[in-house]
């Protein structure tokens, strides 16, 4: 029994480490951002193309300040006009006498228009300030398009696709494949009774790697249970180490009176903690009923300088394969082949908690929910950390898990399949007090 415990715990731990160092994400193996150029019309000196950025990542969105797409022309092409986006630089257009092109850069860089700035005749899914939703959360808003009129193609030169795509979404981390020709995109028109295909289609696929993004972890996980007074905090130095020298303020202590003044001058905007993560996810096993068990899940924002809009949280845990009720978050299950357990994705409820607000001087920002999970009596146990999550991601970034040997321990000699008696209630009250201090 004991050795099996160790083995299962070690495999959980190894899984966490591997998924963190490897840029391939086993929980979203087909995730990518596909950039498509559809030529929809020829013009006297070139063509008109609809460019679509489709986010196929299940839980990675493109946050404010939005995407920036770059590509390089092969034949001195220029962009006469763009509808639904803009190029960031015009470049040297001095050779054009009659009409000034929108962009003459050999490498064009395009950004989205702001919401509400949508010009007439622009594609429907343009103009959201470059923000793109994750595929599993909001497929209707998981793409962004613009139209561009490309010109200056010399009479006898071959039509060539733009090359060397770059995507910032919004920061670095994406690598795009070479552009390739694909079968032309087909659109259904007249209520689906007629198919229209475009003239030509080119595509490039961009994939994300947190290694390339050079990101230190931004998130860590802490754990507690009703059956143990022990609270497992985030591992020390998960995202950075607290400065040993208290006089150098590279973080803000929550109770300092001089906060207001520090605040403005300091470029460091985190609440001081031993883990120094801007985000902490806390999983508390709250109650064990006859046929159900209850978890409280809390995400805390310890950053004074950032609101996380449209946040999402992914939890890999075997318990989700039975029915679960989430009270204060929106949720869905992801079924990933090759991963034995179900993976649950959570995000905020509209008009309620889609924003995870920044910490201020009185309190941290947080969102939380209770989750009621049905028991599968064949698998459910409180032993060996089974009821604790395997992997947690915040907005696609891996959260640092505590090591299994620090997990809260089940007191020996207690049946784990039956609800507990009075001792547990006392423990729960104690824990709820402790949690308030966390
Ligand atoms: C990109 O994502 C789509 C949708 O999941 C998938 O069909 C396609 O195979 C992916 N492409 C690559 C190269 O992974
Ligand atoms: C702009 O382009 C013209 C011709 O295409 C060239 O003669 C001129 O030197 C360029 N100007 C700059 C500042 O590069
Ligand atoms: C595209 O990138 C490759 C590798 O960086 C480079 O060799 C090539 O010249 C680039 N192509 C253009 C048209 O700039
Ligand atoms: C976060 O949102 C709140 C409420 O909308 C606002 O008062 C605050 O200034 C925002 N903080 C930041 C850092 O943008
Ligand atoms: C839950 O998310 C779905 C998909 O984004 C959305 O259509 C629905 O309105 C959301 N429900 C609530 C209560 O926010």
Short structural summary:
By secondary structure, this protein is mainly beta.
Calculate Rg over CA atoms.
Answer: 26 Å
CATH class of the largest domain: Mainly Beta
CATH fold group of the largest domain: Immunoglobulin-like
Q: What would the average pLDDT be, to the nearest integer?
A: 84
Query: What summary fits the major beta sheet?
Result: 7 strands, antiparallel
Kindly state the percentage of residues in helix.
under 10%
CATH architectural category of the largest domain: Sandwich
- Strand segment count: 26
Instruction: Specify the structural class.
Output: mainly beta
Q: Strand-and-helix sequence, N→C?
A: HEEEEEEEEEEEEEEEHEEEEEEEEEEEH
Give the ligands present. Answer: 2-acetamido-2-deoxy-beta-D-glucopyranose
Total helical elements: 3
Q: How far do the termini sit from each other?
A: 34 Å
- Amount of beta strand: 25-35%
Low-confidence stretches: 1-22, 257-267, 415-438
Count structural domains.
2
Bulk shape: elongated
Could you name the key traits of this structure?
single chain; 438 residues; mainly beta; Immunoglobulin-like; 2 domains; 7-stranded antiparallel beta sheet; 6-stranded mixed beta sheet; 3 helices; 26 strands; 10% helix; elongated; disordered N terminus; binds 2-acetamido-2-deoxy-beta-D-glucopyranose
Describe the structure.
- Helices cover 10% and strands 34% of the residues.
- It is mainly beta.
- It is elongated and about 85 Å long.
- A hairpin with a 2-residue loop joins strand 1 (33-43) and strand 2.
- It starts with a helix and ends with a helix.
- It contains three helices and 26 strands.
- It has helices at 2-21, 259-265, 422-437, and strands at 33-43, 46-55, 68-72, 78-83, 85-87, 107-112, 143-151, 163-168, 174-176, 180-182, 186-189, 194-197, 200-208, 219-225, 228-232, 279-288, 292-301, 308-309, 312-316, 324-326, 330-334, 343-347, 355-356, 365-374, 391-394, 397-398.
- It folds into two domains: 33-212, Immunoglobulin-like (Sandwich); 215-241 and 249-422, Immunoglobulin-like (Sandwich).
- Bound molecules: 2-acetamido-2-deoxy-beta-D-glucopyranose (5 copies).
- One 2-acetamido-2-deoxy-beta-D-glucopyranose binds at residues 72, 74, 163-164.
């Amino acid at each position: 029994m004991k050795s099996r415990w160790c083995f299962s715990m070690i495999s959980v731990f190894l899984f966490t480490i591997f998924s963190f160092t490897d840029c391939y994400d086993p929980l979203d193996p087909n995730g990518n951002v596909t950039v498509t150029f559809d030529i929809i019309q020829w013009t006297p000196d070139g063509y008109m193309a609809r460019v679509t950025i489709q986010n196929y990542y299940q839980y990675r969105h493109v946050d404010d300040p939005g995407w920036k797409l770059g590509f390089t022309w092969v034949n001195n092409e220029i962009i006469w006009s763009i509808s639904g986006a803009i190029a960031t630089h015009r470049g040297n257009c001095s050779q054009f006498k009659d009409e000034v092109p929108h962009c003459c850069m050999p490498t064009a860089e395009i950004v989205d228009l702001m919401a509400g700035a949508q010009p007439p005749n622009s594609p429907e899914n343009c103009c959201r300030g470059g923000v793109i939703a994750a595929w599993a959360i909001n497929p209707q808003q998981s793409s962004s398009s613009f139209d561009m009129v490309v010109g200056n193609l010399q009479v006898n030169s071959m039509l060539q696709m733009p090359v060397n795509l770059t995507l910032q979404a919004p920061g670095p981390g994406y690598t795009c494949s070479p552009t390739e020709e694909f079968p032309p995109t087909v659109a259904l028109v007249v209520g689906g009774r007629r198919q229209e295909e475009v003239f030509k289609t080119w595509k490039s696929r961009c994939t994300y790697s947190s290694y390339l993004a050079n990101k230190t972890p931004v998130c860590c996980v802490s754990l507690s249970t009703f059956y143990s007074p022990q609270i497992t905090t985030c591992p020390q130095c998960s995202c950075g180490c607290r400065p040993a020298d208290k006089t150098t303020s590279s973080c803000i202590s929550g109770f300092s009176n001089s906060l207001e003044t520090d605040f403005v001058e300091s470029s460091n905007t985190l609440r001081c903690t031993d883990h120094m993560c801007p985000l902490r996810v806390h999983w508390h096993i709250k109650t064990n009923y006859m046929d159900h068990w209850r978890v409280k899940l809390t995400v805390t924002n310890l950053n004074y300088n950032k609101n996380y809009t449209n946040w999402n949280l992914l939890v890999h845990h075997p318990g989700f394969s039975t029915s679960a009720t989430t009270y204060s978050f929106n949720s869905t299950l992801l079924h990933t082949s090759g991963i034995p357990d179900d993976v649950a994705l959570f995000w905020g409820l509209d008009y309620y908690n889609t924003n995870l607000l920044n910490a201020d001087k009185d309190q941290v920002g947080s969102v939380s929910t209770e989750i009621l999970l049905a028991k599968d009596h064949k698998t459910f146990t409180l032993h060996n950390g089974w009821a604790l999550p395997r992997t947690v991601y915040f907005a696609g970034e891996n959260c640092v898990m505590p090591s299994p040997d620090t997990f809260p321990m089940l007191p020996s000699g207690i049946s784990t399949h039956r609800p507990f008696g009075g001792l547990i209630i006392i423990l729960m009250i104690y824990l709820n007090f402790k949690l308030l201090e966390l």
